[in-house]
# Entry
Amino acid sequence: MIKAITGTKDILPADISRWQYLEKLLRQTFQLFNYKEIRTPIFEETALFARSIGEETDIVSKEMYTFKDRSETSITLRPENTAGVVRSFIEQSLGAQQSLNKLYYIGPMFRQERPQAGRLRQFHQFGAEALGSTSPLLDAEMIQIAFHILKSLGLKNLIVKINSLGIPEVRENYKNVLRDYLKSKKEKLSEDSRKRFDTNILRIFDSKIEVDQQIMKDAPLLIDHLDEQSINDFTVVKNYLSKVGIPFEVDPALVRGLDYYTKTTFEIVSSSVGSQSALCGGGRYDLLVEELGGKPTPGVGFAAGMERILLACENEKSLNLINDSVDAYLIRIDPEIEMEVAKIASDLRRENLSCDYDYLNRSVKAQMREANKFNAKFVVFVGGDEYKLGELNVKNLSDGNQQLIKITDFEKLISLLKS
RNA sequence: GUGAGCGUAGCUCAGUUGGUUAGAGCACCAGGUUGUGGCCCUGGGGGUCGUGGGUUCAAUUCCCAUCGCUCACCCCA
# Structure
């Protein structure tokens, strides 16, 4: 038997209503904040991701699905979508048509990691990017959109974490400060953290190992070494969040793994999904557009993991979706009038009434059970004595009432089924 | 890449201290009188006990390998 690739999942009809509910909520919410949908290809030239996300990051260095196509071009399945959106923004000159572009996307992403709760190799993200303004109100708006969506899904155990990484020069200076602090203590750090000392020193803050945390407890914080502008912007973000009633925590240890972030970063975590607790994350990236060859354009955005969000909903039982139903189920009483049943179904569908009937020649009883399973509002019996007299027997499945309707009186049938 | 746990019907799981035809619930199908559901009752189909090898008179049960799944580390959404 051929099985699905490790880390991929079929989303079956039984789960689809949750996905559709989420997608509908997303579109409504983004519409509310006036974001426009953009759909970019799921694969891009490999160089795009290397340049934007960062050559040294785990995502680029060991998690991408990269292959050569027949023309020997190195292609990568997108591991995230900011790079693709920014590429499109530059290539299509979106900045020339509009000074501020507020965009959102929904779609699959790919990373070759070991699967676990809330982590798949093909997974889905939605996200937003606002390109063209340095206003910290947009940073806060990103947080608000994400928070609004998660709250609308009924999620409870949420924590909004924010931090500021400052501008690059400041961050580089700070790294030196941190390096000085850690130099004497380096030998005491865990093996992983000693490695991070050279590759990505800020990440040592993230370590879950006791000794590391002990050492980092007294470490100088980036947030105390920020530039004037970053401090002011961060204050605006905090003030706005307070004004609109979104609780948050400043987390000086919140360091995002992608290289392109500047200034504000944030994350919303949930305690309802296992160890992969980040439902969404994002931040400002004022230098990315230029780095990818566009005109200098500030930007801010976020991405959220849809599987994780739905997992949190499931664990918190926060969604109570009603089952799908059909307006009518047609029941064939005599085997030989199959075609008449099909024709009636066709007529009903033309009137926008959802309906179905049996294709397996099953008994009336079996057809009734089927109607019940499909949550049919009405059942229409076709055949028997009443059919010979030119009538259809229509039964309301919720109260069991039946009534005869003349086949010629199609209007009456429609209005009954629509009632 | 590292570590741990688990693989018995479509699903959730029992079971065998190694021994005849491997079980339950749910789901599916058919019936419970001539054309009427949700509840209930009866019956039925469906399993190479993940795969390969070893030990043994005998393996679903013990051992080894392999594949897969799950969770955690790592990293991230």
About this structure: Residues 13-32 of chain A form the longest helix (20 residues). The two ends of chain A are 48 Å apart (CA to CA). The first strand of chain A starts at residue 36 and ends at 37.
